[in-house]
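F.,

This is the one I mentioned.
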C-alpha cells in the first residue's frame, strides 16, 4: 500500500510536470540584466550605499549576490541587507563598525532561471569614513606678463574624493571651471587656477580655494594667498615648470592640456600633435582653442587622443614637453548571435563584437563565461568561442566579458539552445517470463529536444486502468526523461507485449518486449478500434497466458487472411494495408490456443472512418490594405461526418472582439469574413477540420498594410544651452515605417533640410533624435516624418527652444586708460531676453550713476542679447581695479571681468645704435629712460625699409614690429632682413598703461650679397640681320641684395654644340632699372640663345632662364655660283647657275633675279635696256632678245628682305639670223646709159653681213623684160649700172645676207634712163655722233656736176667760215677739233639747173657730262645719306659716278658708284665731325666737273652739362655721381676725368684726383669724405666730338644723415651757384607747391584761349582741308635704289609707307624732323619729298616706295620703347623704325643747288651701342616738337574726323606725308599727328644762338635780292622776337617766332645759270625771327610782304627754264607747320 501510494504521488507529479512542460518550453528565455550595477560604488559611512540589480527572462530570473570567490552574500544585521527586488543595501555605520570584507570588497550580481545563469561585472565597493581635512594653496610664481599657477593642495588621504569647485578672488569674485577662461583668470577642470599677464597690481590680490568632498558634500575653503611676481633681467631661456603629462577624459567631455613655461622675454607657445606620420601644428577651430600655455578641446572624440607636444620659445631658446591625451570612449559589447539553436552533436560558434561609436575596437582582453562560470581559454580563438559536438550540457547562457586596462568591464549575454532532436531511447526493458504474483517494474529512458513524452501500451492498447498498474515519469537534470510502469501484483491477464513510446515534435521512437506470465490462454477485452481509411491497420490480439501455441483471426466465420491486403504476422497480429471503409469495417475475432488445447476467444469491432480533406487556398499570402474587406473560404472536399470546422488566428481561436465573423454555409463550407481590415488583422489564419479519423489544417497568411501612426508623437521641447536633449519620434505601421528628421531653414512654413548624423547629432534606431551640446544654432522648427509607402505618411513639426542663460561670447579683457581720459568698459552678453545687467566694482559694490557722477551706463539690445557699456570719465589711479559685468535672466546668471588699469605710458628709449650689421640681420641696442623696471613690460622694435630720396609723407610701407619681453632687455637681433637695404629702426617702450613715443630713428644699411634672383622678362628682339636687341627687367628688388652695377649678357649659337656663352658686360642701373644691349656683328638669320645675369659689388647672381631669338633675314651676301650661258637661238639665251653657299644665303631664298642688258653704244637710249626677270629655278631661258647681240648677264639671289649680291657680269652673244632689209636705197641717173645705185646697210644686220644682192628688173610698161641678180661684197654700198638702154625703166632693190641666209629686201626704187642728168645727191644724211676734239667728215656726193652749198642751221657756210672746217672738192665737209658748239644740223644743197637736191646731217658732239646736283638728305652720328641728279649727260650715256669725301683736316677718299645709282649712304663716319662731300659723273668721253662741295656735320656734339641735382647725391661720408645723367649730345661718351677738393679758406688747396680715365657707367661713388663739409667737384666729359668741363659744389650730410648746418649751405651759395645738399624733405614739397601753382595758372590760361580759338581753328582746318584735297599725289621712298617701271601710285592710306616721301614741284617746300634739344641722345629720323621723277640715267627718278601696305598703327609716344619693324624692307639697314629707340631723333640737313629738290629717308644706319636704356636720358630740358593736324584727303569725312581726333596727341616722330594734288603749286609735307605748336631756340652763349633752321627751297616767285631785303627788315625786329620767344608765359601764336635763314649765295657759272646753295664756308648766314603765318601752310611770294599778311593767289604755272635760271628761290616756310631741318647753325647775336 505504501508503494502504491508513493507511485501515485509520483505519477501525479510527473503528470503535472509533463502537462505543463510543453507550453512552457516554447517560451523559454534566458536571463538578461535590465539594470546592471555600476563598476564602482563609493559612499561614506554616514550616508550608506546601495547596489541595484534587476533582470528579466522567462521564467522570471532570481537575483542573488555573491563575493568575488563565488560565495553567497548573506545579510548582516544592521550592516548589509539583500532586498527582494535584488537590491543590495549597505547601511550607514559607525567608524568602528568598518569591515573590509563588507565595505571594501568586490560584489557580483547573479541572475538565473531554468535556462541558465548570468553574472554581472565586478562591483568595487568602497566605503569611506568621513574625516576632517584642510586645504592649502601652492603658488607657482611668474614674471610680469607671464602666467602664474595657483594649485589647491589637498591631503593625500582625501585627494581622490575632493575636487576644487571654485576659487575666490577676494573679496567676493567667484571663478568657476571652464575650458577657455575669461582672458585673465582660468580655472582648469583639474583645479589649477591660471592668472595670465601678471602685473604689479596682481600682487595685492588675494585668492582662496574652495573644495568639496564628493561623498559628504562638505566644502572646505583654504586660507587667502597672495601672488608674488618674479623680477627677471636679461634673457632667460624658457623652461617648462608645469605640464599635465597624462590627461584622461571620457568621450564628449572637455579636455584641458596645460603646459606652463617661464622665461624672459615671455615665451610664445606652439602646440603640435604627433598622431600622424610627423608632427603637425594644432590649429584653432570650433572645438580647439589655443590659449597660450593651454590647449582646450571641447567634446573630445577618440581621434583627439594621442601625444601632444608643447613648445615654448623666446629669443633665448625654447623648451618643450610631451603630453598624452587618452579619451575613454564608451564601448559596446554584443555577442553574435545572441540566441543560437544547434542540434545535438553540432558545432556552436559565438563571436564577441566590441565596438565604439559604431566602429570596431581592436584587440581587447576578452573572457568567456557559461552560466556564470569562466570557461577555459582553450575554447577561445580571439573574439570567437567555438563549442564542438554540442550536447545537452552545453546549452545555457554564455557571456562575453571585456575588461579594459582602466579596470572597466563590459559584458554581453547569449543563449545556446538545443535544436529539435528526435527522441532517443537511452534505456529500455527486456522480455521477462514470470509466474503470477510478484511485482514487476518496466523502465524506459529517452532524450530529445524538446523533452520527449513517454507513453505505454500493452499489445497496442492502453494499459489496464486498475490499482495494480502505476506509471511514473520524471526528468533528470540533464533533460532526460525516465518513465516507469510498476505492476504491484502480476497476474496471468497482465501478460502481453509492453511498449514504451517516446515522442516529441521532432519524431518518435518506441521499444516493445513481452512480459510472459505462466497460465492458460486469456484474451483481454478488445476495445472498439477506429481505423482511418487509406492507412495501415495493425490489430494485435491481446492474449495473455504462457506459452501460447497459435493465434488465429476470423471475420464473418472466415479465417483471415482472405485478401491480399491482409496479413497475419508471426507474432499473431493482423495487418491490413491499406484500409478500405466498405471492405474492412466489421467485427474481427481473435482466438489463441496452447499446446494443451486450451484456447480463448474474443471479438472486437473495427470501424473505418474517412479523414477530412480540404481544398487549398489560392495563395500562400494574401496582402491587403487597411480598411479593405477580406474573406477566406474553407471547403471540405472529402471526409466523414460529423465534421467540425474551426478558424484560428496565429494558432489561437478567433477572438470575437477583432470584428471577424464566420459564416457556416453548410456542413462542408465555412467563410471567414473581415468587414474592415485593421492592423490587428495581420496574421496566419488556419482552417482546422476535424472528425473522428483525423484533424487537418490549411493555413493562409494575411498581411494588412497599415499606414504609419504615432507610437510616440513628437512634442515641442525646451533645452538649456550646452545640454543634451532627446527628441522622441516613434511610429508603427506595416511595413515598418522609416523615420526622417528635418530642420526648417527659415520659418515654420519655410524650407526644410534633412538632419544627418554628425558630431553632436545622433539619429537613434528607434527614431529618436539626440542633440548634444545644444547651442543657439540648433533652435528652430524640426519636422519628424514617418513613411512606409502606404498612404502619404505622417509628419509633425515641433519647435525646439534653447533656453540660454547669459553667457559672454568674448573673453574678459583688460582696459588700459591714460590718466584723465574716459574709460569705456564694454561687455556683450548673449542669451535669452530679458537680460538684466549690473555693473559691479570689485565684485561687491554695485555701480549706480545716480550716486557716482563719474560714471554712466548704457545698454542696447542686440540680435543675440544685450550690449552693455560702462563709461568712467576723468579716470585716475583710484579707478583702477576689477569691474564685473553681471548678467542674469530666468535661466541663470554669469559675469565677466573687465580689468581697468589707469597708468601713464613710459618714456621712449634713447641712445639707439647698431651693435652689429650683417647682410641679413642687425643687432641694435638702446638705453631706457625709465628708472623703474616695472614701468616697462616690453620693448617694441619697429623697423621698415628707408628711402631717404622720398619725403616721409610718401612712405607707404608699414612698420614691422618685434617685441622684446619676458623680461624686457635692451638689445634686439632683427633677422630676415634684405641685403643692401636701408632700414629705419626705432624702439617703443610699452607698459601696462600704454606705449611711449618712438625713439629717434636709426637708419642702417645692411651689407650686400650677391643677387639671388635672375633678371626678369628677358626678351630678344631682332633689329636687323646682324643685330639682336636684348632687353630685360632688373631682378625683383628683394632679390637684388645690393646696387645692381651691371649685367652680363651671354649669347651663343643655338645650333652649336658649345655649352659656353660669350659674355658681354653692360653697366647697369644702380637702382636696378631695366636694361638693354644691342648685340651686333651676329650671324645673319641665325638662332641665338641668350642669358643674362646681374652683378653687384659682391658678385654675379644666377643666370636667367635662356631665351632664344633669331636674327632677321637679310639679302644673300654672296652671288649665285657657276653662272653659265649658252645661246639657244638668235633671240634666246639659256642661263644656268648654282645657289650661293648655304652660309651666305642669310635667309630663305625666295628665288633668283637675272639682270641683263645688251652691250650697245646708243647715243641716247630711248628706254632703259636693263631688264630683269625672276625665277625660282636654277636655270632660265631668256627670250625676245635682240638678234646677234652681246648681252651682259648678272644673277642674284633674293630673300624676303631683298636682292643679294650680284654676280660678275657674264657676256653672252645671241646667234646670227637673217638681216633686216637695207635701211634705204637711191637710184639716180648718172648718164644716158647708166644709173647709180646706193643704199644704206640694214639698221639691224642680225649678224655679220657677208654680201649684198642687187636685183635689177627692166620694165616696159607693164611687161617685165629682164630680171637680173648681182652679188656684191659686204663693204660695197653702191653700184653703177652701165650700158643700159635709154628711156627704159629700171627697177632696183637690195638684200643683205649673213651666213644664216638672205634677209629681207629693201624697197623697190625705179629710174628711167634719160639723156638729161639732174643734180642728185647719192649720199645719205642722218645723225652723226662723234666725240669732242675729233674730226668728222660729212659726205655730199652728187651726180650731174652740180653746184654745192653747205648750211649750218640754215646759215650758209663759206670756205674758212669755220676755223675748224674744210670743204673738199668732192663736196664733203670736214670738221676737226669738234666741240659741243659744233653740233647741229648741216645741210648740203646741189643744183645744176636741171634739178636740185638737199641733204641734212645731224651732228651730235659727245662731251664730258656736266656736274651732278648733290643733295644731303639726312645725317646720323655715323652716316650721311645723299641723293643727286645728273645734269647734261654730254650726249653720251653715263658710265659711273665718283664720290669724294673727306673729314675736316683729313685726306680725301673717293668711291666709285654705279651709273644706275641716284643715292648713296656714307657709313662708318665719325660722330659730330664736319665733312666735305662732292660728286662727279663719267661718260665714255670723260669726267664731269665735281659738284658743289657740301659741308655737312654728322650728328652729335661735345658733351653737355647736367644739372647738379640730377648728377650728385651726397651722403655723410660719400658722394654718388650719376654719370648716366651727363648728356652725351649724340656722341657716346668715352671717359670722364673726376677730381674734387674741400672748400677751405686756402684757395690753393690741392685737388684730389679720383680718376682721369673713368669709363662711362651708371654711377660712381666717391668715398672718404668728411661729414658736414663743403666740397668742390670738377668733372670733364670726353667724346669724339670734344670735351666739356663743369665745376659743382656740394655739402655732405651730418654724421646722423641730417641736412648740414645752414651756415655751410650759405657758404656754398656764396662760393658757387651750383650747390646741392639733398635735403629732399624740404626740396620736394617746395617744388610740388610751386609746380601746382604754375599748373593752375597755365590751365586757366589754356582753357580761356582754347575757348576763344575754337571758331577760328575750325575755319582754318576746313579751309586747309579743301585746298589740300585738290593737290596732286605723288610719292616715293628711298627704301629702294631705283623705282621700277611698274610701281604704282598709292590708292589707300595703307599703301603709303610710314616712311614714305612725296614728290612735289620744284617750288615745293622743305620739311624736316622735329628736334629735341638739350642733352638729348639722338634717335634717327628723317623725312623727305622729291620733285617730279625724271628720266632714267641722269634724270633718274626718286627711290621707289615700298610696296607692302602698313596696316599696323605706329606708336606715337616720344618714349615708346619698341615699334614694329618693316619686315618687307629691302635692305638690312632699313629695319629700324623711326621711333624705335626712345629719346633719339635723327636730324635732317638739306643742302641744295639750282635744281632744288629735297628728299628724305629713314637712315639705314642706327647706332645704339650704349645700353641699357635706362642709362639714356629720357627727359630733356628743352624739347622742340611740331605736329600738324592735316588729315589724308582720300578718306571720307567720318574717317577724317576720327583720324583727326585720334592723332591729336601724336608726336611728329612718326609721320606719313600727305600727297599734294597740285602739280604747279608749292607743296608742304604734313606729318600725320596734330597741329604744330611751337619752335624754341636755345641760347648757347652770349654771342651765338642755337636755332632750328627751316631750309629754304627754291621758288620762282621770290628773287634773291628780295630775300636779302626781307632779312634786313627782319633784323630790325629781332630784338622783340627774341624777347618774346624767351618769355615762358608766352603761349599765343603771335609770340611763336619762327626763324628764317638766309643762305650764302654762290655764283656757279654753268651755262650762265646762277645756282643758290647753302654753304658753311664764309660769313655766317643771317638769322631772322618772324611771326608765323595765320595759316598752317607755306606762303609763296612774288614780292616780299609782311609775314602776317594773307597770301595772294597766284597762277602757279611752271616757268620757262630760262626764266627759272634768272629767278632765285624764295619760298618762306612757316616753321609752325613745316618740319624743320635739325641742323644747328651758329648765328651771330641778333641786334637788340
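My design for it:
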Amino acid at each position: 500500500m505504501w508503494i502504491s501510494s508513493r507511485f501515485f504521488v509520483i505519477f501525479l507529479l510527473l503528470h503535472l510536470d509533463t502537462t505543463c512542460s510543453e507550453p512552457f518550453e516554447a517560451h523559454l528565455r534566458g536571463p538578461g540584466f535590465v539594470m546592471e550595477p555600476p563598476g564602482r560604488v563609493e559612499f561614506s559611512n554616514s550616508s550608506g550605499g546601495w547596489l541595484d540589480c534587476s533582470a528579466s527572462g522567462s521564467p522570471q530570473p532570481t537575483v542573488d549576490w555573491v563575493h568575488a570567490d563565488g560565495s553567497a552574500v548573506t545579510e548582516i544585521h544592521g550592516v548589509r541587507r539583500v532586498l527582494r527586488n535584488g537590491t543590495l543595501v549597505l547601511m550607514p555605520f559607525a567608524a568602528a563598525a568598518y569591515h573590509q570584507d563588507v565595505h571594501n570588497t568586490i560584489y557580483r550580481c547573479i541572475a538565473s532561471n531554468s535556462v541558465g545563469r548570468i553574472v554581472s561585472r565586478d562591483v568595487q565597493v568602497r566605503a569611506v569614513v568621513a574625516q576632517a581635512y584642510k586645504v592649502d594653496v601652492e603658488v607657482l610664481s611668474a614674471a610680469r606678463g607671464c602666467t602664474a599657477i595657483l594649485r589647491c593642495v589637498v591631503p593625500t588621504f582625501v585627494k581622490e574624493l575632493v575636487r576644487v569647485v571654485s576659487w575666490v578672488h577676494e573679496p567676493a569674485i567667484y571663478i568657476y571651471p571652464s575650458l577657455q577662461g575669461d582672458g585673465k583668470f582660468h580655472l582648469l577642470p583639474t583645479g589649477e587656477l591660471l592668472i595670465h599677464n601678471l602685473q604689479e597690481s596682481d600682487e595685492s590680490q588675494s585668492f582662496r580655494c574652495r573644495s568639496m568632498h564628493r561623498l559628504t558634500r562638505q566644502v572646505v575653503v583654504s586660507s587667502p594667498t597672495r601672488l608674488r611676481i618674479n623680477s627677471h633681467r636679461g634673457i632667460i631661456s624658457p623652461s617648462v615648470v608645469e605640464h599635465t603629462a597624462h590627461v584622461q577624459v571620457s568621450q564628449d567631455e572637455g579636455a584641458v592640456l596645460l603646459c606652463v613655461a617661464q622665461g624672459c622675454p615671455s615665451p610664445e607657445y606652439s602646440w603640435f600633435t604627433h598622431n600622424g606620420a610627423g608632427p603637425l601644428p594644432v590649429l584653432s577651430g570650433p572645438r580647439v582653442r589655443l590659449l597660450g600655455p593651454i590647449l582646450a578641446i571641447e567634446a573630445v572624440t577618440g581621434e583627439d587622443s594621442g601625444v601632444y607636444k608643447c613648445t615654448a620659445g623666446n629669443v633665448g631658446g625654447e623648451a618643450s614637453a610631451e603630453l598624452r591625451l587618452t579619451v575613454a570612449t564608451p564601448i559596446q559589447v554584443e555577442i553574435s548571435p545572441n540566441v543560437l539553436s544547434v542540434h545535438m552533436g553540432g558545432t556552436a560558434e559565438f563571436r564577441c563584437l566590441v565596438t565604439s561609436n559604431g566602429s570596431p575596437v581592436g584587440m581587447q582582453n576578452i573572457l568567456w563565461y557559461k552560466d556564470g562560470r569562466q570557461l577555459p581559454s582553450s575554447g577561445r580563438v580571439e573574439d570567437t568561442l567555438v563549442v564542438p559536438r554540442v550536447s545537452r550540457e552545453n546549452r545555457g547562457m554564455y557571456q562575453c566579458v571585456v575588461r579594459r586596462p582602466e579596470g572597466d568591464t563590459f559584458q554581453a549575454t547569449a543563449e545556446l539552445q538545443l535544436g529539435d532532436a528526435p527522441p532517443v531511447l537511452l534505456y529500455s526493458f527486456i522480455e521477462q517470463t514470470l509466474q503470477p504474483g510478484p511485482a514487476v517494474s518496466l523502465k524506459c529512458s529517452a532524450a530529445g529536444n524538446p523533452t520527449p513524452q513517454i507513453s505505454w501500451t500493452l499489445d497496442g492498447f492502453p494499459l489496464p486502468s486498475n490499482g495494480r498498474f502505476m506509471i511514473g515519469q520524471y526528468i533528470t537534470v540533464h533533460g532526460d526523461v525516465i518513465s516507469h510502469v510498476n505492476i504491484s501484483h502480476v497476474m496471468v491477464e497482465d501478460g502481453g507485449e509492453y511498449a514504451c513510446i517516446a515522442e516529441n515534435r521532432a519524431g518518435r521512437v518506441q521499444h516493445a518486449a513481452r512480459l510472459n506470465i505462466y497460465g492458460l490462454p486469456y484474451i483481454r477485452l478488445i476495445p472498439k478500434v477506429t481505423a482511418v481509411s487509406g492507412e495501415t491497420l495493425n490489430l494485435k490480439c491481446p492474449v495473455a497466458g504462457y506459452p501460447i501455441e497459435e493465434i488465429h483471426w476470423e471475420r464473418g466465420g472466415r479465417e483471415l487472411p482472405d485478401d491480399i491486403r491482409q496479413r497475419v504476422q508471426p507474432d499473431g497480429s493482423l495487418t491490413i494495408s491499406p484500409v478500405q471503409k466498405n471492405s474492412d469495417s466489421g467485427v474481427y475475432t481473435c482466438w489463441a490456443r496452447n499446446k494443451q488445447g486450451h484456447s480463448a476467444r474474443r471479438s472486437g469491432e473495427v470501424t473505418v472512418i474517412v479523414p477530412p480533406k480540404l481544398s487549398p487556398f489560392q495563395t500562400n499570402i494574401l496582402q491587403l490594405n487597411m480598411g479593405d474587406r477580406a474573406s477566406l473560404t474553407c471547403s471540405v472536399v472529402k471526409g466523414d461526418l460529423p465534421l467540425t470546422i474551426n478558424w484560428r488566428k496565429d494558432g489561437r481561436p478567433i477572438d470575437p472582439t477583432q470584428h471577424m465573423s464566420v459564416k457556416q454555409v453548410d456542413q462542408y463550407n465555412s467563410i471567414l469574413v473581415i468587414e474592415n481590415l485593421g492592423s490587428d488583422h495581420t496574421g496566419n489564419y488556419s482552417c482546422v477540420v476535424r472528425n473522428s479519423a483525423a484533424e487537418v489544417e490549411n493555413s493562409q497568411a494575411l498581411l494588412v498594410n497599415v499606414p504609419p501612426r504615432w507610437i510616440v508623437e513628437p512634442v515641442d521641447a525646451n533645452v538649456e544651452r550646452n545640454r543634451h536633449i532627446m527628441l522622441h519620434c516613434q511610429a508603427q505601421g506595416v511595413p515598418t515605417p522609416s523615420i526622417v528628421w528635418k530642420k526648417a531653414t527659415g520659418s515654420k512654413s519655410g524650407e526644410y533640410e534633412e538632419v544627418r548624423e554628425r558630431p553632436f547629432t545622433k539619429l537613434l534606431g528607434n527614431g529618436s533624435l539626440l542633440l548634444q551640446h545644444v547651442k543657439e544654432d540648433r533652435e528652430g522648427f524640426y519636422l519628424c516624418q514617418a513613411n512606409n509607402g502606404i498612404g502619404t505618411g505622417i509628419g509633425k513639426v515641433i519647435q525646439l527652444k534653447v533656453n540660454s542663460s547669459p553667457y559672454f561670447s568674448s573673453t574678459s579683457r583688460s582696459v588700459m586708460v591714460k590718466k584723465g581720459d574716459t574709460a569705456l568698459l564694454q561687455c556683450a552678453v548673449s542669451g535669452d531676453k530679458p537680460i538684466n545687467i549690473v555693473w559691479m566694482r570689485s565684485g561687491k559694490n554695485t555701480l549706480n550713476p545716480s550716486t557716482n557722477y563719474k560714471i554712466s551706463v548704457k545698454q542696447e539690445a542686440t540680435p543675440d542679447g544685450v550690449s552693455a557699456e560702462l563709461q568712467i570719465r576723468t579716470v585716475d589711479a583710484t579707478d583702477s581695479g576689477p569691474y564685473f559685468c553681471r548678467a542674469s535672466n530666468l535661466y541663470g546668471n554669469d559675469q565677466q571681468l573687465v580689468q581697468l588699469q589707469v597708468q601713464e605710458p613710459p618714456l621712449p628709449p634713447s641712445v639707439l645704435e647698431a651693435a652689429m650689421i650683417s647682410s641679413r640681420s642687425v643687432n641694435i641696442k638702446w638705453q631706457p629712460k625709465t628708472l623703474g623696471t616695472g614701468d616697462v613690460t616690453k620693448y617694441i622694435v619697429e623697423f621698415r625699409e628707408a628711402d631717404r630720396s622720398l619725403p616721409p609723407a610718401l612712405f607707404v610701407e608699414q612698420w614691422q614690429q618685434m617685441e622684446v619681453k619676458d623680461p624686457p632687455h635692451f638689445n634686439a637681433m632683427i633677422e630676415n632682413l634684405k641685403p643692401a637695404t636701408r632700414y629705419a629702426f626705432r624702439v617703443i617702450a610699452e607698459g601696462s598703461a600704454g606705449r611711449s613715443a618712438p625713439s629717434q630713428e636709426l637708419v642702417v644699411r645692411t651689407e650686400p650679397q650677391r643677387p639671388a634672383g635672375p633678371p626678369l622678362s628677358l626678351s630678344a628682339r631682332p633689329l636687323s640681320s646682324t643685330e639682336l636687341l636684348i632687353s630685360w627687367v632688373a631682378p625683383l628688388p628683394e632679390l637684388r641684395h645690393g646696387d645692381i652695377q651691371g649685367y652680363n649678357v651671354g649669347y651663343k649659337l643655338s645650333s652649336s654644340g658649345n655649352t659656353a656663352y660669350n659674355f658681354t658686360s653692360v653697366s647697369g642701373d644702380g637702382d636696378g632699372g631695366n636694361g638693354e644691349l644691342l648685340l651686333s656683328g651676329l650671324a645673319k638669320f641665325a638662332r641665338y640663345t641668350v642669358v643674362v645675369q646681374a652683378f653687384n659689388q659682391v658678385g654675379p647672381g644666377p643666370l636667367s632662364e635662356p631665351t632664344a631669338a633669331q636674327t632677321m633675314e637679310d639679302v644673300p651676301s654672296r652671288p649665285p655660283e657657276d653662272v653659265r650661258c649658252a645661246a639657244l637661238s638668235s633671240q634666246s639665251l639659256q642661263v644656268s647657275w648654282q645657289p650661293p653657299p648655304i652660309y651666305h644665303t642669310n635667309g630663305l631664298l625666295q628665288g633668283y633675279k637675272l639682270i641683263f642688258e645688251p652691250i650697245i653704244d646708243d647715243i641716247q637710249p630711248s628706254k632703259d635696256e636693263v631688264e630683269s626677270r625672276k625665277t625660282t629655278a636654277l636655270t632660265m631661258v631668256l627670250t625676245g632678245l635682240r638678234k646677234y647681240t652681246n648681252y651682259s648677264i648678272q644673277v642674284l639671289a633674293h630673300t624676303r628682305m631683298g636682292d643679294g649680291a650680284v654676280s660678275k657680269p657674264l657676256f653672252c652673244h645671241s646667234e646670227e639670223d637673217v638681216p633686216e632689209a637695207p635701211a634705204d636705197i637711191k637710184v639716180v641717173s648718172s648718164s644716158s646709159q647708166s644709173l647709180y645705185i646706193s643704199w644704206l646697210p640694214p639698221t639691224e644686220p642680225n649678224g655679220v653681213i657677208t654680201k649684198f644682192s642687187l636685183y635689177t628688173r627692166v620694165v616696159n610698161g607693164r611687161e617685165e623684160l629682164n630680171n637680173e641678180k648681182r652679188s656684191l661684197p659686204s663693204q660695197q654700198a653702191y653700184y653703177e649700172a652701165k650700158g643700159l638702154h635709154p628711156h627704159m625703166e629700171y627697177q632696183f632693190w637690195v638684200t643683205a645676207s649673213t651666213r644664216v641666209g638672205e634677209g629681207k629686201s629693201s624697197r623697190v626704187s625705179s629710174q628711167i634712163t634719160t639723156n638729161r642728168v639732174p643734180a642728185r645727191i647719192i649720199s645719205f644724211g642722218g645723225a652723226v655722233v662723234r666725240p669732242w676734239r675729233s674730226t668728222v667728215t660729212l659726205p655730199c656726193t652728187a651726180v650731174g656736176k652740180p653746184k654745192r652749198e653747205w648750211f649750218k642751221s640754215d646759215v650758209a657756210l663759206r670756205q674758212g667760215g669755220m676755223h675748224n672746217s674744210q670743204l673738199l672738192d668732192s663736196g664733203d665737209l670736214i670738221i676737226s677739233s669738234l666741240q659741243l658748239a659744233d653740233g647741229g644740223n648741216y645741210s648740203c644743197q646741189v643744183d645744176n639747173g636741171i634739178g636740185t637736191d638737199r641733204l641734212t646731217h645731224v651732228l651730235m658732239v659727245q662731251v664730258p657730262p656736266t656736274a651732278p646736283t648733290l643733295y644731303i638728305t639726312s645725317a646720323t652720328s655715323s652716316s650721311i645719306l645723299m641723293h643727286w641728279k645728273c645734269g647734261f649727260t654730254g650726249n653720251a650715256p653715263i658710265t659711273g659716278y665718283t664720290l669724294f669725301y673727306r673729314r675736316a683736316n683729313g685726306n680725301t677718299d673717293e668711291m666709285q658708284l654705279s651709273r644706275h645709282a641716284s643715292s648713296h649712304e656714307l657709313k662708318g663716319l665719325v660722330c659730330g665731325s664736319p665733312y666735305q662731300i662732292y660728286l662727279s659723273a663719267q661718260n665714255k668721253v670723260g669726267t664731269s666737273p665735281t659738284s658743289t662741295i657740301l659741308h655737312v656735320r654728322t650728328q652729335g656734339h661735345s658733351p653737355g652739362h647736367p644739372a647738379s641735382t640730377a648728377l650728385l647725391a651726397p651722403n655723410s661720408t660719400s658722394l654718388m655721381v650719376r654719370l648716366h645723367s651727363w648728356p652725351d649730345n649724340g656722341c657716346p661718351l668715352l671717359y670722364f676725368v673726376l677730381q674734387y677738393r674741400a672748400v677751405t679758406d686756402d684757395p690753393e688747396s690741392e685737388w684730389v684726383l679720383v680718376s682721369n680715365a673713368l669709363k662711362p657707367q651708371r654711377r660712381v661713388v666717391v668715398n672718404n669724405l668728411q661729414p658736414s663739409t663743403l666740397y668742390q667737384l670738377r668733372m670733364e666729359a670726353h667724346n669724339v666730338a670734344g670735351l666739356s668741363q663743369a665745376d659743382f659744389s656740394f655739402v655732405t650730410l651730418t654724421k646722423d644723415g641730417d641736412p648740414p648746418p645752414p651756415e655751410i649751405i650759405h657758404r656754398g651759395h656764396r662760393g658757387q651757384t651750383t650747390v646741392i645738399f639733398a635735403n629732399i624733405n624740404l626740396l620736394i614739397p617746395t617744388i610740388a607747391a610751386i609746380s601746382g601753382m604754375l599748373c593752375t595758372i597755365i590751365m586757366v590760361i589754356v582753357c580761356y584761349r582754347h575757348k576763344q580759338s575754337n571758331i577760328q581753328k575750325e575755319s582754318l582746318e576746313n579751309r586747309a582741308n579743301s585746298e589740300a584735297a585738290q593737290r596732286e599725289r605723288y610719292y616715293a621712298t628711298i627704301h629702294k635704289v631705283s623705282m621700277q617701271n611698274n610701281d604704282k601710285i598709292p590708292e589707300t592710306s595703307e599703301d603709303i609707307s610710314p616712311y614714305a616721301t612725296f614728290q612735289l614741284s620744284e617750288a615745293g617746300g622743305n620739311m624736316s624732323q622735329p628736334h629735341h634739344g638739350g642733352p638729348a641722345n639722338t634717335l634717327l629720323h628723317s623725312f623727305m619729298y622729291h620733285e617730279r621723277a625724271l628720266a632714267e640715267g641722269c634724270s633718274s627718278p626718286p627711290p621707289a616706295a615700298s610696296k607692302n601696305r602698313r596696316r599696323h598703327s605706329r606708336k606715337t609716344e616720344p618714349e615708346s620703347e619698341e615699334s614694329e619693324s618693316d619686315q618687307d624692307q629691302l635692305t638690312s639697314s632699313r629695319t629700324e623704325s623711326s621711333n624705335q629707340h626712345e629719346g633719339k631723333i635723327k636730324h635732317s640737313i638739306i643742302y641744295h643747288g639750282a635744281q632744288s629738290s629735297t628728299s628724305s629717308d629713314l637712315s639705314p644706319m642706327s647706332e645704339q651701342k650704349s645700353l641699357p636704356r635706362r642709362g639714356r636720358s629720357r627727359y630733356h630740358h628743352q624739347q622742340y616738337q611740331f605736329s600738324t593736324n592735316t588729315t589724308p584727303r582720300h578718306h571720307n569725312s567720318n574717317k577724317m574726323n576720327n583720324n583727326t581726333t585720334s592723332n591729336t596727341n601724336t608726336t611728329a616722330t612718326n609721320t606719313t606725308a600727305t600727297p599734294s594734288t597740285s602739280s604747279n603749286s608749292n607743296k608742304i609735307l604734313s606729318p600725320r599727328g596734330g597741329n604744330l605748336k611751337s619752335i624754341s631756340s636755345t641760347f648757347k652763349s652770349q654771342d651765338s644762338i642755337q636755332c632750328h633752321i627751316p631750309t629754304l627751297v627754291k621758288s620762282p616767285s621770290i628773287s634773291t635780292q628780295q630775300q636779302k631785303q626781307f632779312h634786313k627788315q627782319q633784323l630790325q625786329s629781332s630784338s622783340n622776337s627774341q624777347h618774346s620767344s624767351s618769355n615762358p608765359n608766352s603761349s599765343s601764336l603771335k609770340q611763336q617766332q619762327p626763324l628764317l635763314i638766309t643762305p650764302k649765295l654762290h655764283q656757279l657759272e654753268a651755262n650762265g645759270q646762277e645756282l643758290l646753295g647753302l654753304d658753311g664756308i664764309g660769313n655766317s648766314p643771317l638769322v631772322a625771327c618772324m611771326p608765323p603765318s595765320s595759316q598752317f601752310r607755306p606762303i609763296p611770294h612774288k614780292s616780299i610782304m609782311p609775314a602776317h599778311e594773307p597770301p595772294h593767289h597766284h597762277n602757279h604755272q611752271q616757268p620757262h627754264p630760262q626764266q627759272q635760271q634768272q629767278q632765285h628761290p624764295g619760298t618762306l616756310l612757316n616753321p609752325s607747320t613745316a618740319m624743320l631741318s635739325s641742323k644747328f647753325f651758329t648765328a651771330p647775336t641778333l641786334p637788340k
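The longest strand covers residues 695-712.

Talk soon.
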